[in-house]
Amino acid sequence: MMFVKGYRGSITVEDARKLAEEGVYAVNCMCVGGKEHLIHAYTLAKENFKSGRNVARNFHFELMRILSGRRQIKDAVALCGTEQASCIAVISEKDFALDMPQDDAVLDCAPEKIDYLGITAVVQEKPCDAFFENSAMVELER
């Protein structure tokens, strides 16, 4: 079972690192095009590590790479890092709670998130599909 929650505010890099050590992964909510997108990216990152196809040596960085659609880890971290975020998305295989205002609406797909990630090919009928396509493209560019 996957636990996915949204929160208002930001956390430091150190706090994000401590959470990741516990299997709780926080990213800038602007990189997430819905709960399903975050679960999909998490699953891909897990599969990459299992099969040895991961680009990043760190699972958290691999997750950010897939979410952002960036091959370069530093670019992915710059976009998906939590320190300058106004909201964060958090995923884990175990339940968790952070000491900040929970707001799952920050997980929703939004046009400003598409712009934030620089996604240009947007499907007009289903714009949220663009997040999945963006994540898939980074996997094809190996």
List the helices and strands and how they pair.
Layout (H helix, E strand, L loop, with lengths): L2 E6 L4 H9 L2 E5 L6 H17 L7 H10 L4 H8 L6 E6 L18 H7 L11 H12 L2
Antiparallel strand pairs: 1-3, 2-3
Helix pairs in contact: 2-3, 3-4, 3-6
Report on the architecture of this protein.
- The chain has 142 residues and is of the alpha+beta class.
- The chain has a single domain, classed as CGI121/TPRKB (PF0523-like, 2-Layer Sandwich), CATH 3.30.2380.10.
- 44% of the residues lie in helices and 12% in strands.
- It contains 6 helices and 3 strands.
- A 3-stranded antiparallel β-sheet has the order 1-3-2.
- The longest helix is centred in the N-terminal third of the chain and has 17 residues, at 35-51.
- It is globular, with a radius of gyration of 14 Å.
- The model has no long low-confidence stretch (mean pLDDT 92).
Question: What can be said about this structure in brief?
Answer:
By secondary structure, this protein is an alpha+beta fold.
Please supply descriptive tags for the structure shown above:
44% helix; 12% strand; three-stranded antiparallel sheet; 142 residues; single chain; alpha+beta; PF0523-like; 6 helices
CATH superfamily: CGI121/TPRKB
SSE order, as H and E? EHEHHHEHH
Radius of gyration: 14 Å
Number of helices: 6
Largest sheet: 3 strands, antiparallel
User: At CATH's second level, what is the architecture?
Assistant: 2-Layer Sandwich
Spatial order of the strands in the main sheet?
Answer: 1-3-2
Overall geometric form: globular
Instruction: Calculate the mean pLDDT score and round it.
Output: 92
